[in-house]
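Sequence and fold:
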Amino acid sequence: MADASQATDNTTQVPPLPAVAETTPEAVKAAEKAAVGVHKKINLAAAPIRQYLEATVVPVLMQGMQALCKERPDNPVEFLAYYLLSHNPQPNTKPLPAGAEAGAPAAKAD
């Protein structure tokens, strides 16, 4: 039976993560462009949830959150919703699902 010191010698060392660069508008735009490029290369219908969100929603959501923090509006949810709709990098190619239209009342629970 091997002792604990031998077990740790056989493991590979994981390199440290690189330092996170300061988030600038240029960096955010570059990340968004990279995400759109990835979006075009992968089949999003078959992608895992995290990969799907990182390729489609996260870039514009992060920009919206930054704008939200700068503005600090009285109604932050409405501000963010408007920001996301007005800065959507992909034009609407499909109609929204029934009940998902802007201003549509929420479905009642029985």
The CA atoms of residues 40 and 55 lie 9 Å apart. Residues 25-41 form the longest helix (17 residues).
